[in-house]
Amino acid sequence: MSPFTTLQKILPQHGLSRLARSAANSTTPWFKNLLIESFTRSYNVDLSEATGQKPEDYPSFNAFFTRALQTGTRPIDADLAVVVSPTDGTISQCGAIESGTLLQAKGNHYNIRDLAGVLGDGFDRGSFATVYLAPNNYHRVHLPIAGRLTHTLTQPGALFSVNNHTVEAIKDLFVRNERLVCRFETILGPVLVILVGAMIVASIETVWGSPTSPYQHVELNEHHLDFEKGAELGRFLLGSTVICCFPQHTITLDPNLAPATPVKMGQSIGVIKI
Questions:
Q1: Domain spans of the chain?
Q2: Please, what sign has the CA dihedral across residues 265, 118, 162, 205?
Q3: pLDDT at residue 231 tops 60
Q4: What's the rounded mean pLDDT across residues 141-153?
């Protein structure tokens, strides 16, 4: 286990995230501009696609980090037989849900019911795709297929980093971390989109106004909200992970998807079989 992974176990994860949230929400011009300029240089952030292309265009670091993109920069695959990536990032893992378990990393599996609680029924022998968002990625999350949001589950938890080294080292990391589980009814049946929090992730926000992380307790809510394929669902502050789950015999994942494969929001990640 690396020193960084060990350090995460003793650091005050939620305290660090509260500090990050305070700094990210600051509207003091010199401070937020310095943060944005430093972050852009450190992580080689490409602002050419964004609606704002200089620090002064953003009222806070948070606004910069959750920046919108210019119209047309992320076209949604219009093929009705296609499901699309919910976000920009890289594939962490993807494949079959075997005996109710998903692959986190080599030799490390976790149970879908531990991940999604009461919303995890109906996915055995289905398919999943896990997308890791690096700090320089676009950080809004979208729906991979049109559907109706029926339930959400907020799950408090730890805030371990979700980078590759930590995901490989810490068993059941996605089950242990704070997360928001969203269940949709679609032409495929139920589909899950799960937003997993991480260290220094100061908030998970949704377009329908669900409780903003950090979550204080488990909360199951019912909804009746319709979304088109590619519609925005929410956003992260700083890097994290999105997990999508699909029922058995409903989609064929793109055979080119593999760990470390880069993806863009709106591109095809699979084809509908039914």
A1: 7-65, 82-272
A2: positive
A3: yes
A4: 97
